[in-house]
Design a protein that fits this description.
By secondary structure, the protein is an alpha/beta fold. It is built from 11 helices and 8 strands.
Length: 325
């Protein structure tokens, strides 16, 4: 890089990477793979599903080896790792058939200290629906995601991130439904949950008490906090402190989501990369060592770009230190 990127950081205060780790979501653009191949329900024969699972696990292994070789310690596994895992069409006992594959992949993650997570879509799993069939489907999706993280040998820091969901028929009724669902979930569907606020319906100030009451981590999202601010507004450092208050008592390193607004997109749309200003503000708001999941369209490439920014910023400081010796 020939100089600071446009809109660069300015001061290097509090930007040490020892204070935080960076991760990315699901697809590795460098390798051009994503471990999420799927098929239509109509084509989901046992043979087809077995082939897709094998392909996805092979790609996940390749991604985690790539992460290991590049010192990346945070990664979100795509929910499509096992296609249609929570759908009735998939009757495979895939956890038995691919147990050795999961063991091998999990060993890569453990030896390199990779913290994994999953994040079902709101359509696949959320908390506030009053419809029994939707709640049953969500429970099955959570059981699947928990099993994946268990089979990969992940500790309790590995979480399945959930949104609250919609607000029908009204906000009070919907939040009450979310509380009841968390109370009713079996432990294997509940013990890995982290609850996140969103950018359309539920602000951080509304979601934080839900997580705290149920002893679950609250996951802070910088972009969501901007697009759907709380009333009163929560500054970023306070948002992270709120999250810390739910992770740290569990003995877990906090994890937050970091994204930038796409300049020409609708509110909440993720940009290709993380804007330098957004990154600087997030890092300076940290009070304890934490992890950032980068939610950017450029995935691992966005992560590497942030690292290059750090190297560029460190050059003047290193040169100054050498000149004083």
């Amino acid at each position: 890089m020939g100089g600071l990127p446009e809109g660069g950081f300015g001061s290097t205060r509090s930007l040490s990477m020892e204070k935080h780790r960076l991760g990315y979501v699901a697809q590795c653009l460098t390798l051009k793979i994503g471990a999420s191949h799927t098929c239509r329900v109509a084509n989901a024969t046992p043979a087809r599903l077995l082939d897709l699972i094998a392909q996805n696990l092979a790609e996940l292994e390749e991604i985690l080896r790539f992460n290991e070789n590049n010192g990346i310690h945070v990664f979100r596994v795509g929910s499509g790792l096992v296609p249609l895992a929570s759908h009735p069409v998939n009757e495979l006992r895939w956890w038995n058939q691919f147990g050795r594959d999961f063991d091998k992949i999990g060993e890569i993650a453990r030896r390199s200290g990779q913290r994994l997570s999953m994040h079902p879509s709101p359509a696949g799993a959320s908390l506030a629906s009053a419809r029994p069939e939707v709640r049953r489907a969500a429970e099955k999706e959570l059981l699947y995601a928990t099993r994946v993280l268990d089979m990969l040998g992940q500790g309790p820091e590995a979480r399945v991130v959930l949104h609250v969901g919609g607000a029908a028929p009204d906000r009070t009724t919907a939040m009450d439904a979310a509380h009841r669902m968390l109370d009713a979930l079996p432990d294997d569907a509940r013990r890995r949950i982290a609850v996140e606020h969103d950018d359309r319906t539920w602000s951080a100030r509304e979601v934080f008490p839900l997580a705290r009451e149920h002893g679950l981590p609250f996951l802070a999202d910088s972009l969501h906090n901007t697009v759907l601010p709380s009333d009163p507004v929560i500054p970023l450092d306070e948002l992270f402190r709120m999250a810390n208050a739910t992770w740290l008592p569990l003995g877990l390193r906090p994890k937050h989501h970091l994204a930038s607004q796409k300049p020409d997109g609708p509110p909440g749309a993720h940009a290709d990369d993380i804007a330098p200003k957004d990154y600087r503000e997030a890092v300076e708001a940290l009070e304890v060592p934490s992890d950032f999941m980068i939610e950017a369209k450029q995935k691992d490439l966005a992560l590497f770009k942030l690292r290059r920014m750090h190297l560029e910023l460190a050059k003047p400081r290193r040169a100054a230190q050498v000149s004083r010796v």
